[in-house]
Amino acid sequence: MLQVVDLACRRGDRRLFSALGFELGPGVLLHVRGRNGSGKTTLLRALCGLLLPEEGEIRWHGEDIRQLGDEYHRDILYFGHLNGIKADLTGLENLRIAATLDGDRVATEDLWRALERMGLMGFEDLPTRMLSQGQKKRVALARLVLSSATLWILDEPFTALDKDAVALLQTLIANHVDAGGLAILTTHQEVPLTSGRIERLDLGTEH
Ligand SMILES: Nc1ncnc2c1ncn2[C@@H]1O[C@H](COP(=O)(O)OP(=O)(O)OP(=O)(O)O)[C@@H](O)[C@H]1O
Question: Residues in domain ABC transporter (predicted)?
């Protein structure tokens, strides 16, 4: 269970949101919406513990995430704007490192299976700098196939993906949520989210 209590975040001299509160239980997908600059990425980074809120608290199973530290980080998977993949490494190497950093012990055949699921067979041995934008994103998203994290926090996961990859990602998210996982995502596209219970949070801008 994730609880956000009276949260306020500031970037530079602008307060992006305040008095933000919500709870998210198992099997729920939260779609965070708002125009460019409204603070969606800021909120997601705060939820990951990467950014200190100005006010308020984020609790995971009743405890402040700042107290939980690594215990919380083991339970979450964060997918940020920049994909987090290393250009000089192959898809396979990137995935191995990402899985290890996520604390998932995975066999090589599972890495292959994940890359295959993401439609990357034949490209797994190329340095990722030689892949297209969409293929890079597919490499990064292969983490989701392997992840054992309960809470997925996904910032614009659908951008740069073609129709097939969008459908695959929709399935991965729906399976995760339907199996009792939690997911929070932002997206500007009108991507139908197919999971059981979907909640929406709209961010505006404060001055
Ligand atoms: N490091 C920073 N220092 C100062 N201001 C920042 C910093 N990072 C972001 N901001 C500002 O905070 C505001 C919110 O940014 P954020 O990335 O959270 O928006 P967003 O809703 O995710 O936008 P988008 O839809 O364009 O991705 C923006 O006005 C941005 O300029």
Answer: 2-201
